[in-house]
Amino acid sequence: MAETRAMKLGLDDRVALVTGGSRGIGAAVCVELARQGCDVALTYVGEPGEADDTVAAIEGLGRRVLPLLADAADSTATEEAITRTVTELGELDILVCNAGITRDAVIWNMSDRAWDDVLAVNLKGYFTFNRAAARLFKDRRRGRIINISSINGERGKFGQANYTAAKGGVNALTRTLARELGKFDVTVNAVAPGMVATEMAEGLAPEFRNAAIRESMLGRLADPADIANVVAFLCSDFAKHVTGQVIRVDGGQYI
Amino acid sequence: MFEWFGKVNYCRDTKVDGFATHLRAGRLMGSACSGCGHLSYPPRADCPICRSGEFAFIELSGKGTLSTYTTIFAAPAGFTQDAPFHLGVVDLKEAGRLLAPFGDTIGPTEITIDMAVQIVPRLCDETESIKVYYTLEKPGTTWFKTDPA
Amino acid sequence: MSKVGIVGIGHTVFGRRSDATVQELAFEAYRDALADGALDPAVIEATVIGSVPEYHKQRSLAGVIQEYLNLNPKPTWLTEVACASGSAAIRTAWLSIKAGVHDVVAVIGCQKMTELETAEILALMGRVGDVQWESGFGTTFPGYYAMFAQRHMHEFGTTAEQLAQVAVKNHYYGARNPKALFQKEITADKALASDPVASPLTVYDCCANADGAACVILAGESAARKLGGGRVVWLEGNGCASASMSVLRRSSLTGLPSAREAAAQAYRMAGITARDVKVAEVHDCFTIAEIMAYEDLGFCAEGAGGAFVAERQSYIGGSTPVNVDGGLKAKGHPVGATGVSMACEMVHQLRAEAGARQVPGADVGLTHNVGGIGQYCFVNVFVKD
Fold it and tell me: Closest residue of B to C132, CA-based?
């Protein structure tokens, strides 16, 4: 593998909160931000040990880490996660909303529960985290919000009425918040991956992965690091004039 | 952009345009004449004393004493939803006088002539477009200020 | 240098004149002034119109009026200094006669306040003050005088009750002036109980808008003696001054520096002092304005204006009767007409033709007409022939 040069993004001593940071895209974002000099808080659900690998990676880079067990569908828990980040890491400069679930079904088979659960985590969860961060950032007159979306928020996706509705909503939420927070020097952007080589993707049947590879102009799926690199760039001052955008990192799957 | 200044703005074009940009950064600026040093608030490009057209913005402390006040009940266009609201005229410590609405730290029953006040720059968060103004607050009230460029 | 006198006066009913255009109102006053002086219109060499243009739909009013009065091709133009536009028109005519350019000039102050829609009025209301530094915070015309009142109360102990006494007096006299908008007396209780406008001023502390017109015909001394038929009243003192438009640069917040300056000029020119004034018209756009006027004009000491009205010194029989035609408060305030209306009242008084509101033995009268919040003031002294 060719040696990769690290980006120098000037994020030293910033504090980031990444939701769903224990694995997949979220974990990659946590690690890249730590590499760029951030202290990182991360939320996760499941067993207490779920986040151990990510925590170890961050500590290995010499940064502070705060793992927080918090269900993104629980708005009290989301507020508390933000508060604890500020209390224990001293500040909040960056919010990356990433926690997301799928409950696929064609609509005629999709239950109320499947709809509600996905919307609760993937859209309402983003709303509650974004709201809490917005309150802090507008008073400080600085901040970065990055909402992880999907190209399947801009196009339809068979079997994902709930997921695509939520991601489409995330894109709209992102644009509105860019308008509301712009005057406070806070940028709000969404990153829309195509298919990414994560556990979630691995659980799919090979024909779905291959279909995605065929769609991609680059003949491959994204690594989680591909998404994390763009997220890190958007967090930096190099991206200070980018706001209200949905930036596709999809290898050309959807153009 | 002077059009940012005021809860309603009637004045877009002025030689002291930079006033609003400074206020957005949390700085209340008066003007000092480059010819004779005369200090003015509100700031003005044309010196009333020596007629020089050259001036510099000077940052003021925002400290002052209340000269007079009123509560507006019958409000003009753009303010009808705010009525009744309280306005004060303040003699500024360094120079000149300023008119502004009272802010949240001073209740209507606390308003008395000669009280000490602090002018606090404000950025309106209820509108998409940028709107800067100031309010009269108790001395010691803090506010956001960006570092000078 | 020769004197300038008034040889004819006319005055419409002030009120909501939904029966007339502004030029039709001007014509009423003009016709009455010619009749009052038994004058042939051929003697009129020029007109000066006092009016505030932003209240009218018709742009450039002077030309429309001159045409309607059938006075083309005589020269005409508008003078505008807010609520003192009528007195500015008088001063312009006086200057032209003093300069020897004209002998006889008709001055018409005229105004409709009711042509605008509510939204247009609300928009105008907010632009009385400095639009760059003050209007952005919602100041209004009553708001400025309210701030003067607040300061006056703080420094001199003036009370709301004393302010109400000004309104009571002016409505008392308005009820005796068939040309006034308000024809009923009021009580102090009613005034004090009325809705707040800008603290401490309530509805009854504020003059009302009205439509109306008034006309005075000025003439140089020899023309006046020829035309005047023995009923000339002389304009012997004409004082005029400006002050900072903005309260942010005003040297006093309890008096009008422009009024003090204009009064000093008028007294000096007429060779009189405040004590010589037997009857006065002052600019009571708000009750506090009348109290400040007593002090600025020297009718009483600084700060004593509240006591002056409470002690009935500004009623007929008091030391200086003021606004015995009802003032702006009871007549209403058609802004361009007010200054000329004041002059008409002086002529009535000094001709001893004021009937039920005659000040006995009035030989010297004074008008005090303020524009805006005191950036302009015109003080005139009138003397019986």
Answer: B11
Please choose, from the candidates C214, C213, C247, the residue with its C-alpha nearest in 3D space to the C-alpha of residue C347. C214
B71 and C247 within 8 Å at the Cβ level: the answer is: no
Residue A214 domain-assigned (yes or no): yes
H/E stretch holding C215 reads strand C212-220
Grouping H, G, I as helix, E, B as strand and the rest as coil, residue B132 is strand
Chain B to chain C Cβ contacts (< 8 Å): 115
Contacting partners of chain C (3+ CB pairs under 8 A):
B
**Interchain proximity C132–B113, CB inside 8 Å:** no
CA dihedral sign, ordered C165, C167, C173, C175? negative
Average pLDDT per 10 consecutive residues for chain C, totaling 385 residues: 93 95 98 97 98 95 98 98 98 98 98 90 88 96 97 98 98 97 97 97 96 98 91 97 96 97 98 98 98 98 98 98 98 97 98 96 98 97 96
Closest CA to B130 of B13, B14, B25, B4: B4
Give how many domains chain A has, as a whole number.
1
- Residue C72 resides in a domain: yes
- Give catalytic residue positions of A: 163
Token pair belonging to C385: 């022939």
- CB contacts, 8 Å: A179 with chain B: 128
We report the CATH number of the domain holding residue C317 as 3.40.47.10
Which whole-number Å values give the CA distances from C384 to A1, C224, C297, in the listed order? 111, 13, 20
Q: Is the peptide bond before C196 cis (omega within 30 degrees of 0)?
A: no
Can you say how many angstroms the Cα of residue A207 is from the centroid of all Cα atoms in its chain? 26
ipTM at complex level: 0.96
Question: Domain tally for chain C?
Answer: 1
Range of the domain at A50: 15-249
Q: Is residue A3 part of a domain?
A: no
Is A2 domain-assigned? no
Residues facing C376 on adjacent strands: C242, C371
- Does some domain include residue C269? yes
Residues of chain B with pLDDT under 50: none
The range of the structural domain enclosing residue C342 comes to 4-116+208-384
CA C346 remoteness from chain centre: 11
Q: Label residue A1 by pLDDT band (50, 70, 90).
A: very low
Q: Is the pLDDT of residue A83 over 50?
A: yes
Q: List C264's β-bridge partners, or say none.
A: none
The closest CB to that of B144, out of A141, A179, A183, belongs to: A141
Q: Tokens for C66?
A: 């001159």
User: Distances from the Cα of A85 to the Cαs of C162, C246, C247, in angstroms?
Assistant: 62, 51, 50
Cβ <8 Å between B72 and C195: no
Q: CA C301 to CA A14: how far, in whole Å? A: 68
For residue A89, give the CATH number of its domain.
3.40.50.720
CA-to-CA distance for C62 and C47, rounded, in angstroms?
Answer: 9
CATH architecture of the domain B2-137 equals Beta Barrel (2.40)
Q: Is C54 on the interface with B (CB under 8 A)?
A: no
Whether the model pTM is above 0.80: yes
Tell me if B92 sits within 8 A of B63, measured CB to CB: yes
